[in-house]
Fold this protein.
Amino acid sequence: MGEAKSASVVGTFGRVLECWDRQNRDYVAIKVVRSICRYRDAAMVEVDVLEHLAKNDKDASHFVQIRNWFDYHNHICIVFERLGPSLFDFPKGNKYCPFPVDLVREFGRQLLESVAYMHDSRLIHTDLKPENILLVSSEYVKLPDRKRSFSDETHFRCLPKSSAIKLIDFGSTAFYNQNHSSIVSTRHYRAPEIILGHWESYALFSLSKIGTSSHSGEALFQNHENLEHLVMMERVFGPLPEHMIRRANRGAEKYFRRGSRLNWPEGAVSRESIRAVKKLGRLKV
């Protein structure tokens, strides 16, 4: 089909290669999945979901486009359109300068449309995070950064030329009518509903954290285990709703004592964890 370029992204599942399609004379991205049963199964889920979305989303504006797929020596290879950097990688290459609030608002609008469209299709992404949201274009503009300019030295910041984004990585997508894994989504963007063992509109929580991290330049909750994560949420947002606590499954009961009170700091795994929680302040609205 084509030839691989040197650019690639390595992940747990395998790697993504930037390739030149000699037949269509265009660059593509090929996701080469490791020859492990669970990764192959996830890859086929991703193919099914993307083909379903492409068939129903006529303008293909919300999600990465799948061009083709094939099995090469037991590796599932999925051919995608080539997109730009993720909302994680772009700030990383820009000295972690946060995105302006107007741009974050535009990202949020597109993500809400994407999630709403998936929910209308009875699909749940389950792993919404900046790494899985790609800018459509790699082009950017360089502007003076007055906040970081001192004396006569001028500092610059990069901003995307286009605000268009697309969702990627549908290998863990779940259908509404199937049994869900008890733990989904990457920890830093995991909603309290998931930790407590029940599913509601947790995608909205993940999107709010993505927006916060895009505007601040850092992840809101840098945590390492579930109790610490819940305490951090209470520290920033206030107490967890009673109805949410009442619906917690048996596995989550250990996080509480005396009804709705979290078992903190007694349940902390380390002093570092306690100090990390104390650094957080209440969200100002």
The chain is about 30% helix and 20% strand.
